[in-house]
Design brief:
Number of strands: 18
Helix content: 25-40%
Distance between the termini: 76 Å
Structural class: alpha+beta
Largest sheet: 10 strands, mixed
Order of helices and strands: HEHEHHEEEEHEEHEEEEEEEEHEHHEHH
């Protein structure tokens, strides 16, 4: 080796060492390698009472795992591919690619992002797709609801039920959802990483509407670039490894990332963001558990029959009522009544639309919504009138 070559090799080696020394721990490694976890998510081998679930977890937006809770569902035993194809094969479901928001939307028997359960099960191992869909109502009878949701305010505010099926190897973005959920794994394994609230400024968030409760991080969860996202080094995280039968509570607004292994089937029951919880009128007062009950016996705000349009991701109808009442309370000029103008402004906010100049119409749909509430043409709705709105009326507004 010549003298010049030796100098070049030495210089390159020194440069490599300098780069390695300055490279953050976990750079270009999967999410979770940037620092040790703060610990595991709390876990129980039993279901706690609705009151304790509220006081210890839901009210604090703190996740918790219930080991084996999903075993009570017939779906845990019955939902083999053969059973699903035989009993529910013609039902339609929504598809996504295994790498969330990356690549093309998969095409199923019913078009882009839409498939029958039968066709999906015949093709999902070879193709880049998995089911993330509202659970068709005919499948409700195979699913038990965790008793911590079966009384009081929880029972009255069940919003939606979702189905997840994959051949394994799927992974989500680091994201947060707008509603609470209890997700029960019926087959396979899932690794959950959760990031407690208050760290949004460290996560390199994608741009969202102001006040949005959902959203996702731009960080590549498979290779976190800590040079591009230097603040991410400070992010604290906790985790849980779930196996078939385990259920996890995911609080609204709580960032999480999920990796699935083996054939995966899960059902997620979404429920409302609650400012308070009442155990009246049907929770046992000694904090004992309500009876286990089928999903088919529950009132779900947004259900899906298995064909036609899905309402996946719709707002909680009761939040509409709450927002109207709050607007009246906060604006003394309304004098205890919701005016047409205030109604329009609230509807614009609910639907995340831009506001228009005073006097300019928001179109016939808004006018029709107002007229359906103010049938007497008084120009306002009273507090009692808002409280008397039916669930169906609120659904139409959302």
């Amino acid at each position: 080796m010549g003298r010049g070559t030796a100098v070049i090799v030495l210089s390159a080696s020194l440069f490599y060492l300098a780069v390695c020394r300055d490279t953050p721990v976990g750079h270009l490694q999967p999410l979770g390698h940037h620092r040790p976890a703060d610990g595991e998510i709390d876990a129980y081998d039993y279901i706690i009472s609705p009151q304790d679930f509220w006081e210890k977890y839901a009210s604090k937006r703190k996740p918790v795992v219930f080991r084996g809770a999903g075993n009570r569902s017939d779906a845990f035993r019955l939902w083999t591919n053969e059973y699903l194809a035989q009993h529910y094969g013609e039902l339609e479901v929504k598809l996504e690619g295994k790498r969330e928001k990356l690549g093309k939307m998969p095409v199923g028997e019913k078009g882009v992002g839409r498939d029958t359960i039968r066709n999906f099960l015949q093709t999902y191992v070879e193709e880049d797709k998995y089911i993330v869909s509202q659970l068709p109502e005919p499948m409700y009878k195979d699913v038990m609801v965790p008793p911590c949701l079966l009384c009081g305010t929880f029972k009255r505010r069940l919003l939606e039920v979702n189905l997840w099926v994959s051949s394994g190897g799927s992974r989500s973005l680091l994201h947060r959802d707008a509603d609470n959920a209890i997700n029960c794994l019926l087959a396979g394994r899932k690794d959950w990483i959760m990031i407690p609230p208050g760290q949004e400024h460290l996560l390199s968030m994608a741009e969202e509407d102001e006040g949005a409760l959902g959203g996702f991080s731009l960080v590549n969860v498979q290779a976190v670039n800590l040079i591009k996202h230097p603040k991410f080094k400070k992010v604290h995280w906790i985790y849980s490894n779930l196996t078939a039968g385990d259920c996890v509570f995911i609080p609204y607004g709580h960032f999480h990332q999920v990796r699935s292994f083996d054939r995966n089937v899960a059902v997620s029951v979404l429920f409302a963001r609650l400012a308070e919880f009442s155990s009246e009128p049907d929770c046992p007062q000694n904090k004992s558990l309500p009876e286990w009950d089928l999903l088919s016996n529950q009132h779900i705000a947004w259900s899906y029959p298995g064909h036609g349009k899905m309402s996946m991701g719709n707002n909680d109808p009761e939040h509409v009522r709450e927002n109207f009442l709050q607007r009246i309370q906060e604006d003394p000029e309304l004098d205890g009544k919701l005016s047409k103008e205030a109604f329009m402004m609230e509807m614009v906010d609910i639907k995340s639309l831009p506001r228009r100049p005073p006097g300019e119409s928001y179109g016939p749909d808004f006018e029709e919504s107002w007229n359906s509430l103010d049938k007497e043409g008084r120009g306002y709705i009273t507090v009692q009138g808002l409280k008397d709105l039916s669930h169906e009326q609120l659904q139409k507004l959302t």
